[in-house]
Amino acid sequence: MLVARGLLLFLICFPHPPHPLSLIPHPLKMSQSTIGIAKRSQLPTKLMTISGIIFIIMAILPLFLGSFQVSLLSKLLLFGALAVSLDLVWGFTGILSFAHGVFFTLGGYAMAYYLKLNLAAEGNTYGVDLPDFMVWNGLTELPWFIAPLKYFPLAAIAMVAVPAIFAYLIGWFIFRSKVSGVYITIITLAISSALTTFFISQQAYTGGTNGITDVSRLSIFGIDIPLNGLYWMILLFTTFVLVGSYWLTQSNFGLILRSIKENENRISYLGYDVASFKIFIWTLSAGIAGITGGLFVPLNRFISPVYLAVAFGTQVVIWVAIGGRGTLIGPVIAAILLGQIQNYAERVTQDWQLVVGILLLIVVLFIPDGLVGSVSKFFDKAKKQ
Amino acid sequence: MYAYLFPVFYLAQEAVTEETTEAFSIVALGNQLLNGISIVGILLLTGLGLAITFGVMRIINLAHGEFIMLGAYVTFLMQSTFGLDLLLTIPFSFLITAAIGALVEISIIRRLYGRPLETLLATWGLSIVLQGVIKLIFTAQLKYVKAPPYISGNLTLLRDAQGSAAIAISYYRLFIVFVAIALLALTGYLLYNTDLGRQVRAVTQNREMSKCLGINTSLVDMVTFAYGCGLAGIAGSVISSLKSVSPPMGQDYLVDAWMTVVTGGVDKLIGVLAGAFLIGEFNAGIAYLLNDPTARVIVLAAVIVLIRYKPEGLFTIQKRS
């Protein structure tokens, strides 16, 4: 029932660029110029050439880098995709969420169970086909809701479906009410806090505070994926997320999302079902975050409630804020740069978080558009003069 | 059958079967309810400052927990350097946190009035910064504060056959409840019976009109915010001896304080008391039936449901909008 409803929603809302939203009532048959928010642009050739060149450079980069650098770069690309998924709901629709770390981690746990169970099946020292943390906590057989994750297709589906369905339920619950933006953010904080407590308390099933550690390398249908292969998968995924988000936000659908952010009441007066749009983008974004988490685990080799906690959710918010909400490339650049800096800074100092806090304050107070947003605004001004 | 449909429910049931070995006795229930009372005291104390900054001023203050933490550190510093009694450090922590609060209002909050999401982000940034700074000064090590020796021991309500205490509550926890209620009464008096309180309420109701009537609104804002932060500081001082003092300690209290204020509703100050009482006893009751982490998860979920249906809180006057 629920899934069918979600699918229906997806079909209804799914944008078809030439004649978008033909199924959604257009009470005033307005054209874009009457909305006057943003002009719809074809993918400009210049932008395409530049992104093509960057993509090719990124693709051949691992051939010249050491495995540590490749692994770091893959993680940063994933963080970029995660930031884009938050940007879709925050930058474009105006819903600030601290729960994206939660969706990320749910996807991560799905993949971690798959990797861990396959490691257990290969034979461990305990003599049972059980992950070590379950043995330590006295489980004798695999819980029924974890057992199916042994098979890759099911794990891959769970990686997207679990966070997406969870997000759909939350969205269905909170967006169909008159709860305002700030309260929704507080709800996401509460969700993050509650799930962290829950995952830590269910030690036998989730590995408690340590999470799921020492997972195996990623292998799909018995084929081992080398690090470079994983990197290319991640690069493709991130590119796909970026291009897909660009297309989505440039379509009429994206236009409606942006108008929801600007003036929600007005859009609902025009006959749009604002809640459906919010639920759709919220679910989609959670699905993307879930895949990101799933791809993150084989690199990171563990997943733990650290990524569920509000601190990680804040990190994602900061990438988007610094990069620039409402720009797609900004969050990616911010995630890659900040992640890189963090990687070096954490070796030198224990107080990286302090720097992050100061950055957040500066961005909120002085550069509300973020770095990329400010730069593009500057160029727009220069062009007009 | 139901249990197999929902893993969460299933897990909760598992927890129950583990706990059932402990007898469902009156004594355990009584202790749990008293434990609930002490949770109520802490919730009330930590929520009160937020009832001012959020309830009266509508500032989304995510750095509230850090002001509690600052208060605790002031007490620790006073006690370790001057050997002051915990009670004597309370005025200092009120003044110092209030001063920091005033600074924060002038430098950050003032620029963001009317933009709740930005305020939320900025105060969140502030909370990270305050944690970081305290960590730089005092290191991440846990610090311990001594409770005053004359409020130690337990008040025994019921003794078992052997004559040892069966149902008891420590005097210190009673003291927390007492301080919390005293502060609530004081704040209520300030807000509803003094000129300053009238000005504060006037500014929150109609800023422009208050300006026209000659009220210095920016001064009122600063004083109110500083007072809210000062209350958080007192909470930090009083709570500091319960657990250890550490830079991230504010985070737990932040979530609890928010739950209290949101549950109670912010129209009337007394809502905080109601919210604290509900959450405290609810939490203790579920913890008695199941276990502590499950109780926390259920309470958080209940608060989310509550926000969904009544974002203005349970104890508010019905208004036409």
Automatic annotation (TrEMBL), chain A:
GO MF term (any one): branched-chain amino acid transmembrane transporter activity
Statement: the UniProt record of this protein carries the keyword Transmembrane helix: yes
Record carries keyword Lipid metabolism: no
TM ranges: 47-65, 77-110, 151-175, 182-200, 229-248, 269-296, 357-379
Compartmental location: Cell membrane
Keywords per UniProt: Cell membrane, Membrane, Transmembrane, Transmembrane helix
CDD domains linked: TM_PBP1_LivM_like (cd06581)
Primary location recorded for the protein, binned into one broad class: membrane
Domain of life (superkingdom): Bacteria
Membrane topology, record value: Multi-pass membrane protein
GO CC terms, sorted: plasma membrane
Alphabetical list of NCBIfam families matching this protein: urea_trans_UrtC (TIGR03408)
Official protein name in the record: Urea ABC transporter, permease protein UrtC
From TrEMBL, chain B:
Organism lineage string: Bacteria, Bacillati, Cyanobacteriota, Cyanophyceae, Pleurocapsales
Protein name: Branched-chain amino acid ABC transporter permease protein
GO biological process, one term: amino acid transport
Membrane-traversing stretches: 37-60, 67-84, 90-109, 121-145, 165-192, 213-239, 269-290
Alphabetized GO MF terms: transmembrane transporter activity
Native species: Hyella patelloides LEGE 07179
Pfam families linked: BPD_transp_2
Keywords noted in UniProt: Amino-acid transport, Cell membrane, Membrane, Transmembrane, Transmembrane helix, Transport
Cellular component GO terms, alphabetical: plasma membrane
Location of this chain's protein in the cell: Cell membrane
InterPro entries the UniProt entry points to: ABC_transp_permease, ABC_UrtB_bac, BCAA_transport_permease
Mode of membrane association: Multi-pass membrane protein
Keyword Transmembrane included in the entry's annotation: yes
Family the UniProt entry places it in: Belongs to the binding-protein-dependent transport system permease family. LivHM subfamily.
Superkingdom of source: Bacteria
